[in-house]
Amino acid sequence: MARWSPVHSLLTLVALATSACLWTPPEEPEAPREEKKAPAPPEPTACMTAPIVTNGSRNRMRVALTFDACSTRHNEYDERVIRTLVETGTPATLFIGGGWALANPGRIEELAQYPGFEFGNHTFSHPHMPQVKDDQKVLEELQRTQRVVYDLTGRIPKYFRPPFGEVDRRVAWLASQASLVTLNYDLPSGDPDTTIPAKRLSDWVVRKASPGGIVVLHMNHKRFATAAALPDIIKGLRKRGFELVTVGTLLEDHTWPTCQPSEEPELPAVAGVIP
Q1: Number of domains present in the structure of the chain
Q2: Domain assignment present for 266
Q3: Would 269 be classed as within a structural domain?
Q4: Helix residue ranges per DSSP H, the chain
Q5: Does some domain include residue 28?
Q6: Which of 30, 97, 124, 157 is at a distance of 20 to 30 A from 74, taking alpha carbons?
Q7: What is the pTM of this model?
Q8: Tens of pLDDT along the chain (275 residues)?
């Protein structure tokens, strides 16, 4: 039987200590990495939507007569409409199509001489805007017209009238990126319907007009009853106590959200107008 000795015990402790120093604990498993979450979409702001205006204040006896000059195959002009407005001292907002302006440059230059007229944007080629799915093409329709109107009149339109009155939120927002307020109407006159006689047309507008109203008429077709009905429209509205004003005056007390355009679109030059 082996006898215990202090030397033997010391050697045993040294051996245990040495073996302990050679051992390393197993590596702890890596903590699972926290997955980066996709950034949340921005909160909606006023600049992500745009107004579609159909009327002004209902508390003031004001009505705005607006006249579309549509870009069509014939690009006609009914000077009788303008003559009546001038002779009766009636302010009006004229929504000019870019194609129409190019076909009638002398006409629009004459219109710009009358301070009672305000110019609006009625697109370049008069398309159904919600059906134009390419955002850049929507902007081109608006910006080309802005350039034509400015080149011929020295004025920059502030309001955009959608052709056929057709507009959606996307188109209105794109218009705001071109610094335009989308403006429709609350009283369609029905003047493109050539079966409507002048008396019926004027009676309809005078009877249906309301405070803050925006009336849409046309100045680009001599077959329409617009010119024949216009004197009675003006007389009847004034008899009812309405002040006839431009859209700008009608909306002068309204403020719009200030939005910074996301990107300045690259715009084509217009042949014969933009160098």
Answers
A1: 1
A2: no
A3: no
A4: 6-22, 79-87, 98-103, 105-111, 135-153, 169-177, 198-208, 226-239, 247-250
A5: no
A6: 157
A7: 0.77
A8: 444 444 444 444 344 444 433 333 445 445 445 544 444 444 444 455 799 999 999 999 999 999 999 998 888 999 999 999 999 999 999 999 999 999 999 999 999 999 999 999 999 999 999 999 999 999 999 999 999 999 999 999 999 999 999 999 999 999 999 999 999 999 999 999 999 999 999 999 999 999 999 999 999 989 999 999 999 999 999 999 999 999 999 999 876 554 544 443 333 333 332 22
